[in-house]
Amino acid sequence: MRILIFAAAMVAAAPAFGQALDVHAGRLIDPATATVLTDQRIRIVDGRIVSVAPWRASANDSAVVDWSGFTVLPGLIDLHTHLADGAIEANANDPAEPLKHSEAATILAGAAAARTELRSGFTTVRDVGVYRGLTDVALRDAIAAGQVDGPRMFVAGGYITTPGGGGEIDALAPDIPLPETFRIGVVHNASEARDRARYLLDHGADFIKLIATGAVLALGSEPGALELSPEEMQAACDEAKLRGSYCIAHAHGIEGIKAAIRAGVRTVEHASYLDAEGIAMAKAKGVWLDMDIYNGDYINDVGTRQGWPAEYLRKNIETTDVQRRGFAAAVKAGAKLTFGTDAGVYPYGLGARQFAYMVRYGMTPMQAIQSATSEAARALRLDGKVGSLAPGAFGDLVAVRGDPLKDVAVLEHVDGVIKDGRLIR
After folding, report:
1. CB half-sphere exposure, 125, CA atoms < 13 A
2. Measuring CA to CA, how many Å separate 43 from each of 65, 116, 396?
3. pLDDT tens profile 103-131
4. The model's pTM
5. Which domains does the chain have, with CATH numbers?
6. Residue 209: which residues within 8 A CB-CB, separation 6 or more?
7. N or C: fewer beta carbons within 10 Å in the chain?
8. Alpha carbon 117 to its chain's center
9. Is the CB of residue 411 less than 8 Å from the CB of residue 122?
10. Phi-psi bin for 420: left (phi > 0), alpha (psi -120 to 50), beta?
11. What SS3 state is found at 332?
């Protein structure tokens, strides 16, 4: 890739006040309008997009990135990652893995995961829970301060979960207590759910993650089973709303999906056993479905070869195909769908593999791109700020060879990344 007039100092730090960057895009995909423009100039000043217009050589001293041979689109958004739990990815088959790393080691591994995720084209992520409470807050803040390279993060701080539920580590003997930092969101009733939601938001969480049902990658937890009660979910959602935030729900089983929607969650994660009534409820309430339809194949392939727990593999087989059928039905019904991959279950940096699955199961390539840009931004309440080319949006761009509207899989190999007007690669 040819890059012109781009000083090394600018690569190493955020743009100085008044610093302008012109990006020459050969083809430019605008997800908000579902249009494609050619030979465009995206001007970024102080890390924000100020204009998009036909290319002409700059008359001032602005830096120029020459992506005239590439397809350019806004930075991608993944609404379901686990970057701050980066220490678990290397040995995901061990249910006790999070307990085998110090807090410092976990955060350092998270920093490495964040850098990998950013370089793969995801400039904004929602990190949807950690086992060791509040480590995600620390990682988010380090990235925001420029101390760590990574995507813009929105974090949950921990999980609101029942004792021994899908948000707890359940790999030790019953008489071995877990450290309290690993039980930061464990609740027994609605009053405690409200209290824990308040605690997490007071300590830096951006939103609240509810473990409404059992999980695939958790021992003794069945995905179809309701774990949090409707009253507990309602109490947490009421508290989040009171504080200007919102809840999301890990929910595989249909009763959990419906209870979470009734409680007022903003997005439903996984939604494996989604049915027609659940789709209709989500549409009626304006709830987004965030369905990780790629990683079932990864778990089945790699998990089988590496000898992951039989319980994990059994539950993965039970949920993978039915989830994809539900996704296809939701697309056909016109439900709101976002891009979320469960990064950390598979190696970081591979999340763009999900685009091809979304197209295979009913989306057009443009719809798949929108799910990871303009639609994800709306779910984040950042419409026009991330995943966008609008004036005032963060200066986040990615460049790829080829045309993702003809072959969406080209997004799996990103050639260039800009975040906040700073060239990452």
Report:
1. 35
2. 10, 26, 11
3. 888 889 999 999 999 999 999 999 999 99
4. 0.94
5. 3-75+387-423 (2.30.40.10), 76-379 (3.20.20.140)
6. 128, 129, 156, 158, 159, 160, 167, 185, 247, 248, 249, 250
7. N
8. 10
9. no
10. left
11. helix
